[in-house]
Amino acid sequence: MRILVAYTSKTGFTKTYAEWIAADLGATLVTTDELSADLIRDHDVIVHGGGNRAGNIGGLKKFLNHWDELKNKQVVLWYTGASPANPHAEANVWGQALTDEQRDKATLFYLRGGFDMKLLRGADKMIMSGMRTALKLKPNRKPSEEGILKMIANPNRELDRANVAPLVEHVRSLASA
User: Tens of pLDDT along 142-165?
Assistant: First the structure.
C-alpha cells in the first residue's frame, strides 16, 4: 500500500506530526503546496494535516481542490490545535471545513500541538498581539478569555509522538482490510 502524507504548517507543530506519521508508515511526505494530481494517483492512502487557526485548517482548502482524485482513495485528515481534545469542538471544526460527502469519506483526527507566540510571523503575530491587547483592556473577562491570555503568556508545546499512534494504526488497518 502506497501512502502519501501532505501537510501545511506555520509554527512547526503540524510539520513535526507529519514527519512522525510519514516515518512510522514509510510514507511519501510532501507539503500541501507540493501536492499534485499525479502524486495522488500514485498513492492508495492520502493523509493530510494542518493547524487550526480560528476554525480554518491550514492547507485544507487547497487539499480539497483535488477532491475529484481523492474521492476514490482512502483519505485520512487531521488538524493540530492548542486546546485539549474536545469531541464537540472538533466536530464543529470538521463540520465547517468539510462537506457531508467529505466527512463521510475521510477518517478524522485531532492532534494536540500547542501555542507559542514566538513562533508566529506576520499577520498571525499581529492578530494575536492585537487580541492580547484588547483582552487585557477588557473589564470583566470571561473564563475563556482569561484562558486565551494565559495561553498567549505561557508557551504550550503538547507535541508527543504517542499522539500519532491512533492515526498510524488506522492507516495500517486499511492495508489489512
Answer: 887 887 788 778 777 788 899 999
Using 70 as the pLDDT threshold, list the residues of the chain that sit under it.
Answer: 177
CATH number (domain holding residue 11): 3.40.50.360
Structural domains counted in the chain: 2
Reference 9, options 61, 52, 68, 44; nearest CA is 52
According to the model, what pLDDT value does residue 17 have? Answer: 97
